[in-house]
TrEMBL record:
Keywords: Aminopeptidase, Hydrolase, Metal-binding, Metalloprotease, Protease, Zinc. This is Aminopeptidase N. Its EC number is 3.4.11.2. Aminopeptidase N is involved in the degradation of intracellular peptides generated by protein breakdown during normal growth as well as in response to nutrient starvation. Pfam families: DUF3458, DUF3458_C, Peptidase_M1, Peptidase_M1_N. Residues 229-442 form the Peptidase M1 membrane alanine aminopeptidase domain. Residues 447-550 form the Peptidase M1 alanyl aminopeptidase Ig-like fold domain. Residues 23-189 form the Aminopeptidase N-like N-terminal domain. GO terms for molecular function: alanyl aminopeptidase activity; metallopeptidase activity; zinc ion binding.
Length: 877
């Protein structure tokens, strides 16, 4: 067998043949579904007669093939592992094929598969080729008609894209529905669902007065978990009208919840398919975080109707065209309807931990990659989140109004087309008159740029000189980097007044908050008329996805935490202050020196706790220490034990020093009101629960009782899960064990709650956890075939329990590698995602490096899917 080969952006050629219309008939059967396809095909005028017709196809058994009604002779075509070639075809013709596929055996969850007894599809990126022979590429767009034939009893509900146009009975207790989708679409947006589903229905009137029916389809037992998704959908539809002028374009919009799904959700035209975890909520089963995630994902998929579906990607290298833009859109939506600063803090905290790590590792790639082996490996934080940061920078650079003009232009000019990132940025350039030539490097250069900044205040001349230097580290395949255009939003906060000072730069007055443009490798900015010594507040709102170093003293940081007018930077100053203290403690731990708590950190927390908070959600964020993963991200060499010990020490130190404040905060924010996923309530809960977590860090006897009461009160899942987690992660197994048991028994019937039950247990910091992981893998509620279960148990263990995953004896690595090897056969996409923690071996000490590489090599010795192959090769390169 030859090694999988990469494909290159530079090899892109427009298709020789296009499909203008696709007519499909599915005769559903779990083991042997028949798919008939009638394709209306035309040769592109630029291609000569005699150009063979090449169609993608995998795991299809061809039963019949005909052109314009004439069956083909065996020597007129050829079927291979990857598809079908017809040697000679007319200029325009009808191609009829019939194939057989086996949904039941499809454990990869790509193409047509079964989940909890229902049929469903996943076609992005290249799943449609597992359904029928087709030019399975996004630049081939056709209108679709789909007839679904199913068993009247087993599949009373038969869904596909568009509007239902015909239905009827068939012999043998069968029935059918025909769907017509008038909007030309690429094959990756095709969807089919068939099963015994129930619906919740609502309606939406669009801005031009059209009525749209909204449906959410679920298994019967989940009918009471759809309210929040429906409300979120309606809010998203309104928001997209108001913010982008985008109206929905069909009479029907459907969401279906499925239990087995590789990703969060999928934007298929008119028929979004969701991982049940990304759509179902109930106060008793879902946490605040889950409610907010559902809101964001429902909006994200809905927004794709324009940014992705009406205007789609020319090829998969352009993936961030739809994903980066749509993530930016969903982030703005969530910011608008919740707390904007908190949303930004959460997004950036996640981004700087996970995307920075990706960008610094062996799989680092540009937001627009120039080659890949398996596109399924490129649904990454870089494509999604860094792509969104780039769109955010664009939006800030051109300003709100020009951005809207640019997006209007983009949607109008390219409606119904498959386009590139240049097309998008070109519209922004046209609408704003700005030049983005240098800016485009953000799309082609991998790696996180680092800015080293320093400043000097000249008292005599009332000047502040700020010097910025940028450098992007080498990444695989990109040893040299060019300077980027980096927008740095800033203010100068006067140390006397505690206020933002008016800014004058090169004679221009700029208000108290402005953006400077770093374009050179090194640049100096001279602010004049600076009446007092300032502390600079740099990169406000995280104005660019970079690492910023400035030699702040701890006093500077405490000052910024108290005075910065930018909520994000106020939070960030606190994080930086904690990181400095944590650094000392990590060093002390490594050197075997006694740890001492920095009184400045205690003081900063005391100030926070004792002020009247105007925003409780922000306060909760400010009271949260950087995660172990983010601390690790700052260290030259990751020492998981030292990091864990240092962070635990700070938590305990704060709890001891500020016990009464935490207790008071807990009590003040207790609330018996009926649960609502609303910002005000969520803020109170998060503040209360942060306080409880500090108290549990010292296992304060009052706190243990409060945690127990909070668990037993059973008021909502946020509180229950938090209390249970604190108990399970404490040494109080006398309370934790029975509580876990009760929880597990109460929710044995609910897979989404059982996922949480798994996650709570495998994040336990105690050293016995690996046995628990193994034990839980044998639990009847666990299954390697269900991606949510794999993520909840194995993924959570490997990614969120650093001290135990990185056990010095390598047992954590071994367990992960064993799982990857098994999953490689079942579900390559999930297997590849799971390998990630092992690929970061270079960040650890030599012994761990050897153990991690050993496991990667053990994986490499297997017969690998292209997905796992690509990752392991990069990791060992
Ligand atoms: N396109 C989906 C989204 O971001 C994600 C997805 C990719 C889902 C591939 C399934 C498979 O909204
Ligand atoms: Zn998306």
């Amino acid at each position: 067998m030859s090694e999988p080969q990469p494909i290159f952006l530079s090899d892109y050629r427009p298709p020789a043949y296009r499909v203008t219309r696709t007519e499909l008939t599915f005769d559903l059967d779990p083991h042997a579904t028949r798919v008939k396809a009638r394709l209306h095909i035309e040769r592109h005028p630029e291609h000569e007669a005699g150009t063979p017709l090449e169609l993608d196809g995998e795991r299809l058994v061809l039963k019949r093939i005909a052109i314009d009604g004439q069956p083909l002779e065996p020597d007129e075509y050829q079927v291979g592992e990857a598809g079908l070639v017809v040697h000679r075809v007319p200029k325009a013709f009808l191609l009829d094929t019939e194939v057989e596929i086996a949904p039941d055996g499809n454990t990869a969850l790509s193409g047509l598969y079964r989940s909890s007894g229902m049929f469903c599809t996943q076609c992005e990126a290249e799943g449609f080729r597992r359904i029928t022979f087709y030019p399975d590429r996004p630049d081939v767009m056709a209108s679709f008609s789909t007839t679904v034939i199913g068993d009247a009893e087993r599949e009373p509900v038969l869904l596909s894209n568009g509007n239902p146009v015909e239905r009827g009975e068939l012999p043998g207790e069968r029935h059918f529905v025909t769907w017509e989708d008038p909007h030309p679409k690429p094959s990756y947006l095709f969807a089919l669902v068939a099963g015994d589903l129930r619906k919740v229905e609502d309606a939406f009137t669009t801005m031009s007065g059209r009525d749209v029916t909204l449906q959410i389809w679920v298994e019967e037992e989940n009918l009471d978990k759809t309210e929040h998704a429906m409300a979120s959908l309606k809010r998203a539809m309104r928001w997209d009208e108001q913010t982008y002028g985008r109206e929905y374009d069909l009479d029907l919009f459907m969401i279906v919840a499925v239990n087995d799904f590789n990703m969060g959700a999928m934007e298929n035209k008119g028929l979004n398919i969701f991982n049940s975890a990304a759509v179902l909520t109930h106060p008793r089963t879902a946490t605040d975080a889950a409610f907010q995630r559902v809101e964001g994902i429902v909006a994200h998929e809905y927004f794709h109707n324009w940014s992705g579906n009406r205007v789609t990607c020319r090829d998969w290298f352009q993936l961030s065209l739809k994903e980066g833009f749509t993530v930016f859109r969903d982030q703005c939506f969530s910011a608008d309807i919740n707390s904007a600063p908190v949303k930004r803090i959460e997004d950036v905290a996640f981004f700087r931990t996970a995307q920075f790590a990706e960008d610094a590792g062996p799989t680092a790639h540009p937001v627009r990659p120039d080659h890949y082996i398996e596109i399924g490996n490129f649904y990454t934080l870089t494509i999604y989140e860094k792509g969104a940061e780039i769109v955010r920078m664009l939006s800030n650079l051109v300003g709100k109004e020009a951005f809207r003009r640019g997006s209007d232009l983009y949607f109008e000019r390219f409606d119904g087309q498959a386009v590139t990132i240049e097309d998008f940025v070109g519209c922004m350039a046209e609408a704003s008159g700005q030049d983005f030539e240098q800016f485009m490097r953000w799309y082609s250069q991998a790696g996180t740029p680092q800015i080293d900044a320093h400043g000097e205040y000249d008292y005599a001349n009332a000047e502040y000189r700020l010097i910025l230097r940028q450098r992007t580290p080498a990444t695989p395949g990109q040893p040299e980097k060019q300077a980027l255009h980096i927008p740095v939003r800033l203010g100068l906060v006067g140390t006397k007044s505690g206020r933002d000072l008016p800014l004058t730069l090169e004679g221009e007055t700029l208000g108290t908050d402005t953006v400077i443009h770093l374009r050179e490798e090194e640049q100096e900015f001279l602010f004049t008329e600076v009446s007092e010594a300032p502390v600079p507040s740099l990169l406000r709102g995280f104005s660019a996805p970079v690492k910023l170093h400035f030699p702040y003293s701890r006093e500077d940081l405490a000052f910024l935490q108290a005075h910065d007018t930018d909520g994000f930077n106020r939070w960030d100053a606190g994080q930086r202050l904690s990181l400095l203290a944590l650094d000392d403690l990590i060093a002390a731990h490594r050197n075997g020196v006694e740890k001492v708590m920095d009184p400045r950190v205690v003081e900063a927390f005391r100030v926070l706790l004792e002020a009247q908070p105007d925003d409780k959600a922000i306060l909760a964020q400010m009271l949260t220490l950087p995660s172990e993963a983010y601390i690790a991200e700052q260290q030259p060499l990751v020492d998981v034990d030292a990091i864990h010990a240092a962070r635990t020490f700070v938590r305990q130190g704060l709890a001891l020093a500020l016990r009464d404040d935490f207790l008071r905060i807990y009590r003040e924010n207790q609330d018996d009101a009926p649960y609502a996923p609303e910002p005000e309530q969520i803020a109170r809960r998060s503040l209360k629960n942060v306080a409880l977590a500090y108290l549990m860090a010292i296992e304060d006897e009052d706190a243990v009782q409060l945690a127990r009461e909070q668990f037993e009160a059973d008021h909502n899942m946020t509180d229950v899960r938090h209390a249970l987690t604190l108990l399970v992660h404490s040494s109080r197994s006398d309370i934790a064990d029975p509580a876990l048991k009760t929880f597990g028994e109460t929710w044995a019937h609910d897979p989404l709650v059982m996922d949480q039950w798994f996650a709570i247990q495998v994040t336990r910091p105690q050293p016995d956890v690996l046995d628990r992981v193994r034990f839980l893998m044998a639990h009847p509620a666990f299954s390697l075939k269900n991606p949510n279960k794999v993520r909840a148990l194995i993924g959570t263990f490997a990614n969120q329990n650093p001290v135990n995953f990185h056990r010095a004896d390598g047992a954590g690595y071994r367990l992960l590698a064993d799982t990857v090897i098994e999953l490689n056969r079942l579900n390559p996409e999930i297997a590849a995602r799971l390998v990630t923690p092992l690929t970061h071996w270079a960040r650890f000490d030599e012994d761990r490096q050897a153990l991690m590489k050993g496991e990667l090599e053990r994986i490499r010795a297997e017969k690998l899917s292209p997905n796992v192959y690509e990752l392991v090769e990069k990791a060992l390169a």
